[in-house]
Amino acid sequence: MSKITGSQAIIKCLQEEGVDTIFGFPGGAVIDLYDELMDSDIHDLLVRHEQGAVHAADGYARATGKVGVALLTSGPGATNGVTAIATAYMDSIPLVVLTGQVPRALIGNDAFQEVDIVGITRPCTKHNYLVSDPNELVSTLREAFYLASSGRPGPVLIDLPKDVVAAKMSFPEKKEIKMKTYQPNIEPHPGQISKACKAFLKAKRPVLYIGGGVILSNANKELTELAEKTQTPVTMTLMGLGGFPGTNPLSMGMLGMHGSYASNMMVAKSDLLIAVGARFDDRVTGRLDAFAPHAKIIHIDIDPTSISKNVEVDIPIVADCKYALRAMNSWFDDSKDFDASAIAEKHQPWLEQVKEWNDKHPLSYHDEGDIIKPQFVIETMNRLTGGDAIITTEVGQNQMWTAQFYKFNDPRTLLTSGGLGTMGYGLPAAIGAKMAFPDKTVIDVAGDGSIQMNIQELATAKQYGAKVKVAILNNNYLGMVRQWQELFYNKRYSATVMEVTPDFVELAKAYGAVGLRAKTKDEVEPVIKEALETDNVVIMDFVISREEGVFPMVPAGKATTEMLLV
Amino acid sequence: MKHTLSVLLQNKPGALSRVTGLFSGRGFNIESLCVAETLDSKVSCMTLVTHGDDGIIEQITKQLHKLIDVIKVTDVSEGEFVEREMVLIRVKAENTTRAEVLRVIDIFRGKVVDVSPASYSVEITGPESKINAVIDILRPIGIKEIIRTGTIAMARAPKK
């Protein structure tokens, strides 16, 4: 068999996996690989900071469902990627991150740009590798793609010593990957499905509580079928938004710290909670002993560690959400005890109660004359895009207002850092999504604080024609922390006032993008319209009501029924 | 409650630190840890003694399973099992106590492995409780140094 170089082998592996786009930043340790990339048909994007590369690969992965790939050099290149790797890890996003490493003979010698990135990323990757034998390079790459995309997905890092990449090796044929130490459970246990469905038939006040797992396993159709068949109200975590149509009458929107009144009330009063691909995060549950205190709990998750981690579960189902939901739907279809109209009738009082809560305290805000309310910006954006856009967010108030006021009907249309809460995620993630879907509108909803964390990626967007739109909800504050300080720290705004903020309109121009500003309510719609019609990267600077808060809000450590309302 | 876990894992660089990192990162306890190669040189066996309520032990077991390098996790303390630990103790042995030390070691079926004019170094194996007992007895005589291996454990073979 003819021998090829490690660089050639890596590119062949990427092609084998169907990788068309990678995001990265070169350096001495990966220069061979970059040289080889020049002759390949893989589109490689040069970002402006390695964190941006991994976030962009993450945005690409979330938008497409495929594995995102980033290529970083050794040392600082690799460490700059760590925040973004941890972001993907917390949200279970499939990534393969390739990092250069110093030649094997120098490892451990404190060589130039050497860092133990495998050691550093061990707790924030699904798995990672240092390839120390050229003959294991190809099998390691294949295994990495398999691990990243199967089971509970996650980022996998491969550290590539420079001499391994330069070595000659054979390229064995691809075989089906079987690992004796890793066998995710895809199919649900039929006994558990039948238990769960029987519990469903007995319930009077059921609630579906869905998370990012529904989106990761592409189970939105099966979920909608189950909710409609059983006339069960649905609430979503931040990561679950889009997993069930936000405009469906059964949708009560998000739950938890900034969830809707109806969502939090219905969970608290439910007698059956069906958690699907969600992990009972502290931002969802609030005070644990007051979370769904009367409910029997069914939990569907592919990761056994998620089950009974925070909340004791009555009926655990370890399986891929899609398979489990499909099995539940067919159980009902085949069961003589299931009568759709009878169950709809039985749940009617419960649905009326939920509607009453929702009518009593719908998501709302107070208009104040000409002043721009951030919620109004999101509502207008929702209306003007017809909900048909990919929305990324930064982290903080901008993220919560988006989650509350944009109605996500389709999976993979909200890309946001839920678990880690990484400011600076939105812009590079938007670029990644736009590269995957050049014809789709992609908007990053940002704050004036978080946009500055990775604003350098405007240059990447310009260079590759990723015509993303950035909507800055500008209040000259780090708004979410300020809100906490207002409510719980006697309005002592320590380190949350952005005394110096760039002129974002001028900044956009400096990057060759278009900058637009809205200072009054009337200007919001024309600005968004113009941005959507402009064939360029656009920054919209919305000067918003400075001390607007995100409500409802459950103070940390309180029960989710103890909401501060508008 | 105390639990003794037997963990089979790939004998690969970094596998051990994945396990210890998991414990430190998630705030689980390790009382002792003992690891060496099995009959298959590609596989190591780790005996890990930890404590926690049932929920914590369940999480530890699941989290260990989740590590890609881990092949199998058994809570041997759930059933019948044998456990052994070895200790090396350097104990003061002066004219007045030399005979007493030997008697104690004999009672515990230990062995003297090194002798000097002022001390004996002894080796004792047994379950943790026995090791603790011998230490308690020798302490008043004067222990100069002590090295313990930590527990290794094996489930008992089925009787039928």
- Would you identify the regions of chain B where 5 or more consecutive residues have pLDDT less than 50? none
How many domains is the backbone of chain A divided into?
3
The description of the largest β-sheet of chain A is: 6 strands, parallel
Tell me the Rg of chain A in angstroms: 24 Å
Main sheet overview of chain B: 5 strands, antiparallel
N-to-C SSE string of chain B, H for helix and E for strand? EHEEHEEHEEHEE
Architecture (CATH level 2) name of the largest domain in chain A: 3-Layer(aba) Sandwich
User: How many helical stretches of chain A?
Assistant: 22
Q: First CA to last CA of chain B: what distance? A: 29 Å
Portion in beta strands of chain A: 15-25%
CATH superfamily of the largest domain in chain B: ACT domain
Q: Give the total of domains of chain B.
A: 2
Query: Overall pLDDT of chain A, averaged?
Result: 97
Overall CATH class of the largest domain in chain B: Alpha Beta
CATH topology of the largest domain in chain B: Alpha-Beta Plaits
Helix content of chain B: 25-40%
CATH fold node name of the largest domain in chain A:
Rossmann fold
Radius of gyration of chain B: 19 Å
Total of helices of chain B: 4
Structure overview:
With 566 residues, chain A is of the alpha/beta class. Chain A is 38% helix and 16% strand. Chain A has 3 domains: 4-169, Rossmann fold (3-Layer(aba) Sandwich); 190-360, TPP-binding domain (Rossmann fold); 374-543, Rossmann fold (3-Layer(aba) Sandwich). Chain A has a 6-stranded parallel beta sheet with strand order 3-2-4-5-7-6, with helices on both faces. In chain A, α2 (31-37) links the parallel β2 and β3. In chain A, α1 runs parallel beside α7, α3 packs parallel to α5 and α3 (50-64) crosses α18. The longest helix of chain A is centred in the middle third of the chain and has 21 residues, at 340-360. The model of chain A has no long low-confidence stretch (mean pLDDT 97). Chain B is α+β, with helices and mostly antiparallel strands and 160 residues long. In chain B, 29% of the residues lie in helices and 41% in strands. Chain B has helices spanning 15-26, 54-66, 98-107, 128-138, and strands at 2-10, 32-37, 43-51, 70-75, 81-92, 111-116, 119-126, 143-148, 152-155. In chain B, strands 5, 6, 7, 8 and 9 form a 5-stranded antiparallel beta sheet that branches. The longest helix of chain B has 13 residues, at 54-66. Chains A and B meet through loops of A and α1 and α2 of B.
